[in-house]
Structure formats: structure tokens, C-alpha cells
């Protein structure tokens, strides 16, 4: 359809004809086409909240068909210094490496002083072992034995490994819309 100039030289007793009404109807349709489609350049991509089956004529779902990029399940990033138009990237899941973990340390300590002793109840060598005697405690011939000082010493230890080394999702909260492109 092409825009047709409206009649502007009406006289007082002129009566519109079917040609005049057809011209008005055609001009309204053409104005709608201009407003709906021509104002948006070919290749423009918009977010669409309607059903994929009700995409307007002259538009296509961005699914990698009909010359559209496949934007299904994708976030959009602005092209510029870091990303050129059409670049893709990112991962659905991320598995952190040791280099990506924050710097941290694990600490612990033990006493290194050996100048202490321990006392325990023992039995004379002839008994060979201790025997509990009910409410009276140990066998009556027991005596206190003190150990020698141990001297300075240290202990080494390690911590348990935790975590399951599994990838994780790194996605912000979202609301899904379809992308459509002007053909």
C-alpha cells in the first residue's frame, strides 16, 4: 500500500464517495504499518512477553533460524571494548579452581613445653596389673608414680578436607522473556 493524499478541496455540498472512504481506510492501514513496523529498523531485537505463537508479522523468534541469533537461555551483554557484536561466552555452571578461591589459612597450636609431669596409680611389680575393688577404689597396695619431664617437643597435624568438588550455578534471580528480531 502507498499513502494517498487525502482530498482537501471539499465544497459545502460535496458528498464523500466510496473512493474517498477507501482512500481513508487505506491511509489508516498504511499509517498503522508505518507506526508498527517501519519505525523499527530491520535487525532490531526486542524482548517479547507474549506467546511464541503470537509473534507479530515481520518479526521472528531469536532461535538461530531465519537469520536471527540464538538467544534462548542467554543473558545479553552490551558490545563494546570487551565484547564484539555476536560474541558468546559464559558457563551454565562453574567449578572453582584453587586459584579462584579467596586467600585463607588454617591454624592450630600445641604446647611445646615439656617441663610437666603426670601422676598415675600403679601396682607393685608382683601384681602385674590393676584390679578395681568396687567402692574402695583400686587395690590397696597401689602407689602414686610420677613420670619424668618430657622435654620440649612439638606435634604436627592436618585439617580434614571438606567440600565435594562439584560445580555450582552462578545466576542472578531472573524473569524469562523471549527475544524477537525485526526481519
Automatic annotation (TrEMBL):
Q: Which domain of life is it from?
A: Bacteria
Low complexity bias: where? 107-117
Please report the name of this protein according to its UniProt entry.
Answer: Microcystin-dependent protein
Q: Extract the ranges annotated as region (Disordered).
A: 102-170
What the entry lists under InterPro entries is as follows:
Gp10_C
Polar residues: bias regions: 144-164
Q: Which residues cross the membrane?
A: none
Q: Which CDD domains match?
A: C24-like (cd22641)
Q: Where is the Baseplate structural protein Gp10 C-terminal domain?
A: 84-176
Amino acid at each position: 500500500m502507498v499513502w494517498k493524499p487525502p482530498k482537501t478541496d471539499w465544497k459545502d455540498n460535496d458528498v464523500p464517495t466510496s473512493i474517498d472512504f477507501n482512500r481513508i481506510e487505506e491511509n489508516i492501514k498504511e499509517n498503522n504499518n508505518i507506526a508498527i513496523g517501519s519505525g523499527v529498523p530491520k535487525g532490531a531485537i526486542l524482548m517479547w512477553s507474549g506467546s511464541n505463537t503470537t509473534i507479530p508479522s515481520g518479526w521472528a523468534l531469536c532461535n538461530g533460524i531465519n537469520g536471527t541469533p540464538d538467544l534462548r537461555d542467554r543473558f545479553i551483554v552490551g558490545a563494546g571494548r570487551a565484547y564484539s557484536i555476536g560474541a558468546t561466552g559464559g558457563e551454565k555452571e562453574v567449578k572453582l579452581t584453587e586459584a579462584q578461591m579467596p586467600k585463607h589459612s588454617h591454624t592450630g597450636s600445641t604446647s611445646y613445653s615439656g617441663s610437666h609431669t603426670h601422676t598415675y596409680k600403679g601396682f607393685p611389680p608382683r601384681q602385674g596389673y590393676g584390679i578395681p575393688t568396687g567402692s574402695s577404689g583400686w587395690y590397696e597396695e597401689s602407689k602414686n608414680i610420677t613420670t619424668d619431664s618430657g622435654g620440649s617437643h612439638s606435634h604436627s597435624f592436618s585439617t580434614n578436607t571438606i567440600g565435594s568438588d562439584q560445580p555450582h550455578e552462578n545466576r542472578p534471580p531472573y524473569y524469562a522473556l523471549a527475544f524477537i528480531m525485526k526481519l
